[in-house]
Amino acid sequence: MGNPEWSEQYHHIKILQYQDLAVGLKNLGLHPDDMDIVIGTHLHWDHCFNYDLFKKARILVQKDEIRYCYRSPSHACPFYESQLIKMRPPWLKAIEKIELVEGIWRYLPVSIS
Predict the structure, then answer these.
(1) How far is residue 110's CA from residue 58's CA, in Å, rounded to a whole number?
(2) Residue 46 region, left (φ>0) first, then alpha (ψ -120 to 50), else beta?
(3) Which residues of 40-53 are buried (b: 16+ CB within 10 A; e: fewer)?
(4) pTM given for the model
(5) In what helix (H) or strand (E) does residue 100 lie, and over which residues does it extend?
(6) What is the 3-state secondary structure (H, E, C) of 18-67?
(7) 3-state DSSP call for residue 101?
(8) What is the spatial distance between Cα 97 and Cα 60, in angstroms, rounded to a whole number?
(9) pLDDT tens profile 51-71
(10) Is 87 helix (H, G, I), strand (E, B) or coil?
(11) In the sheet that 37-40 helps form, which strands lie side by side, from edge to edge?
(12) CB-based contacts of 11: which residues, under 8 Å, 6+ apart?
């Protein structure tokens, strides 16, 4: 979800308990580089703020969600940190990693361990 200062400054959210994503993964014995896929259900700032941490992962996002991001109605712009309100959406930090999908997409791993 970014960091507490960002949240407070731009979204006026008081985070009661904050944990850095990389630290949270480390506490589970994981590292962002261990992830091979990240599924973006939607691109609200608090769901995509850390996409750039996943250097080795494919980041999948529905094409319709990207369209909606760019053409979101004014009431939704803050949630997307839309460029329409002079913000830079956090998912743009990982734009080169994002793969657009359409409709139902099934991920079948080669092996399950």
Answers:
(1) 15
(2) alpha
(3) beebbbbebbbbbb
(4) 0.80
(5) strand 98-101
(6) CCCHHHHHHHCCCCHHHCCEEEECCCCHHHHCCHHHCCCCEEEEEHHHHH
(7) strand
(8) 9
(9) 999 999 999 999 999 999 888
(10) coil
(11) 37-40, 58-62, 98-101
(12) 45, 46, 78
